[in-house]
């Protein structure tokens, strides 16, 4: 059997194991009816959202790193997270329900995508214009978010801070459905365009000589990856490092062929975020940590290990 197929099957097994652990970890078996409520009404929606967000951020991160040719690019490079944070903060400022706060976050992400693309269009969608536009808007929106948090009433500050650090506890059916639509559609599009990404990575001039419309493909992929990121951030807050470290691990395991890579990082990202959320939920009982704290710790350890291995101090 092909080595890559075996690795993919192992990733599916890994995902299944972490799902089971997350569903049943800490459940009291003395009351079966209460345990069933905890598993099906509280744990399962949270696991589903973690699966979708992890897969979405990891696959979008792989797209950004490939097209921008930057190993440190991630789904938040174009400022989508800051736009979502601004929208969510406005929702909290007006004391809206969690559903409307999610909608505000998604609208904020879409507006950021529109602004970044408008700025980049003046420079013919060059990589530098996309990155600079995203970073500039990110700083601007982050400053506005801090201003809004200062204006939010005391009881709303903790909710805003937790959301900004990543939070999967409010996994509503609406959020899961919205995220599922964008993430599944996005991953399918990434897979179908995977061979085009391979050609672009070999050299844009070579790809154009073959007959590939490089600029159109890049615009489509950037836009889809941004939509996937917007859906993930609006549902879960800002969860760092998933879209940064998972593509690196995926390339180490599967190589540079992007069709296989997009499937692999989706499975790996889903399992990784479910595992991190389980740790965040159980490591400091009765307190619950934001999942972004755990992913940040793993991300820092990962890159520190890379630095030590590369001996580039």
Describe this structure in words.
The protein is mostly helical. It has 13 helices and no strands. The longest helix is centred in the first third of the chain and has 37 residues, at 32-68. It is found in: Cell membrane. It is a multi-pass membrane protein.
Distance between the termini: 41 Å
Write the CATH homologous superfamily: ABC transporter involved in vitamin B12 uptake, BtuC
H and E string: HHHHHHHHHHHHH
Return residue spans where pLDDT drops below 50 for at least 5 consecutive residues.
none
Q: How many structural domains are formed by the residues? A: 1
Describe the largest sheet. none
Q: Quick one: how many beta strands?
A: 0
Strand content: under 5%
CATH topology assignment? ABC transporter involved in vitamin B12 uptake, BtuC
Give me the number of helical elements: 13
Shape: globular
Helix percent reads: over 70%
CATH class: Mainly Alpha
**The CATH architecture:** Orthogonal Bundle
Summed over residues and divided by their number, the pLDDT gives a mean of: 87
Radius of gyration: 20 Å
Multimer state: single chain
Helix-strand makeup class: mainly alpha
Could you write a compact summary of the structure shown?
By secondary structure, the protein is an all-alpha fold.
